[in-house]
Specification:
Elements (H helix, E strand, L loop, with lengths): L1 H19 L5 E3 L13 E10 L2 E5 L8 E5 L2 E14 L2 E11 L5 E10 L2 E8 L4 E8 L2 E9 L8 E8 L2 E6 L2 E7 L7 E6 L5 E11 L1
Antiparallel strand pairs: 1-15, 2-5, 3-4, 4-15, 5-14, 6-11, 6-15, 7-8, 7-14, 8-9, 9-10, 11-12, 12-13
């Protein structure tokens, strides 16, 4: 009984350490970037056709005053990634606020991004009230898990993904939304944010860590 209890405690501690062991943590609040520009090291684009517009703007509701990263154009799948990062295992977290869009009002995270057409995404959608995890392969997006959750428009939300090997855990506003496995992309890639269609979305307090 004593040995069993000790083993249980040891395993719990090891798991807790593994979950918190995220070296090279970086936080970005976009407040040092000039209006209308992208932060240093970031590049914006789109999977498929469209004309996305990614830029840093002032927003009085920003969690970290005064700036946010805003997507105000449109496209099939607009993305904005930090090209000087390469992570295989770790986490990405962002605060986002969906403020407009008749077709979609989505905010998402990209990780293990290889190029315009190949990467993982998790996103929350205020028009559909759900959180979904996808892989995009050769420009084709496919979901491999989805959960219904309230995603209020015009409010700030926190979206996070933890990834290690083929296991992914998505957290939305502090609650675990999805746990899933997938083997599509095993190699390291960059990280960033994502929207869909005509979503007008604000992003702030982008952070990531791992290796």
């Amino acid at each position: 009984m004593i040995i069993s209890s000790f083993t249980g405690v040891l395993l719990f501690c090891m798991m807790a350490f593994a979950e918190s062991d995220t070296p090279n943590q970086t936080s970005i609040d976009f407040d040092k970037t000039s209006m209308g520009q992208l932060p240093a090291g970031w590049v914006g684009g789109v999977t498929g056709e469209g004309s996305p517009k990614w830029s840093v703007e002032i927003d009085t509701t920003a969690p970290s005053q005064p700036n946010v990263l805003k997507q105000s154009g449109s496209g099939k799948y607009p993305w904005c990634v930090k090209k000087d990062v390469s992570l295989k295992n770790g986490y990405v977290e962002v605060k986002f606020k969906p403020i407009g869009g008749s077709e979609d009002q989505a905010g998402g995270i990209v990780w293990r991004w290889q190029d315009d057409d190949n990467y993982y995404i998790t996103r929350a959608n205020a028009l559909e009230d759900n959180v979904t995890i996808y892989h995009t392969v050769k420009g084709n997006r496919r979901s491999f898990k989805n959960v219904d959750m309230k995603v209020a428009p015009n409010q700030w939300h926190t979206l996070r993904v933890d990834f290690a090997g083929n296991h992914f855990k998505v957290t939305f506003d502090g609650k675990v939304a999805i746990e899933a496995t997938d083997d599509t992309f095993k190699e390291s890639g960059t990280v960033g944010v994502w929207t869909k269609a005509d979503s007008i979305t604000l992003f702030d307090d982008f952070s990531f860590g791992g290796k």
